[in-house]
């Protein structure tokens, strides 16, 4: 159901779903009602994944009380990773770039630092990370991932010499 809640300008898995146009995106972004519904849908999906949006201003997230059982679901069923990628892309389309950063960092922390989502790690690094629109924020997230990746010498998502100099 996330394809209806999180439309994109590209074709997805649902062949009947029509990609959004730039004009539609602009109209959505201007409508308070549409954007309120969008945030409700985002919170709904976060809840399904065991995550809570704790600050609507910033996009800050934390684990929900039921995170353990929901993370088991995320680890078991990889199709959720496609949905998360779609949500991240849609956040960018709708002007919620800061939300993208928080969600990607959340998954990087859970996969690389806390190791609670080992089966999501590949998607977090290969897909989630590169949905972030801000080049500067994406660079910071790559650096964060490199800092926590084990073994660091196997990190392939950025040049090690540049990452060592990055601050």
Automatic annotation (TrEMBL):
Single annotated GO MF: opioid growth factor receptor activity
Q: Which residues form the Opioid growth factor receptor (OGFr) conserved domain?
A: 5-164
Pfam annotation, one family: OGFr_N
One Gene Ontology cellular component: membrane
Q: Which family does it belong to?
A: Belongs to the opioid growth factor receptor family.
Q: What is this protein called?
A: OGFR factor
Q: What organism, scientifically named, is this protein from?
A: Phainopepla nitens (Phainopepla)
């Amino acid at each position: 159901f996330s394809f209806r809640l999180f439309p994109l300008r590209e074709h997805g898995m649902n062949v009947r779903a029509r990609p959004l146009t730039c004009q539609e995106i602009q109209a959505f972004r201007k409508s308070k009602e549409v954007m309120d519904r969008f945030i409700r849908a985002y919170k709904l999906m976060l809840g399904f994944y065991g995550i809570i949006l704790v600050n609507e201003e910033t996009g800050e997230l934390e684990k929900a009380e039921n995170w353990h059982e929901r993370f088991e679901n995320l680890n078991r069923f990889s199709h959720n990773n496609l949905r998360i990628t779609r949500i991240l892309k849609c956040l960018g389309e709708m002007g919620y770039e800061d939300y993208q950063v928080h969600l990607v960092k959340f998954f990087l922390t859970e996969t690389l630092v806390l190791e609670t989502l080992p089966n999501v790690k590949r998607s977090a690094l290969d897909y989630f990370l590169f949905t972030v629109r801000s080049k500067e924020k994406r660079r910071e997230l790559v650096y964060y991932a490199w800092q926590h990746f084990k073994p660091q010498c196997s990190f392939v998502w950025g040049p090690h010499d540049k990452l060592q100099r990055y601050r």
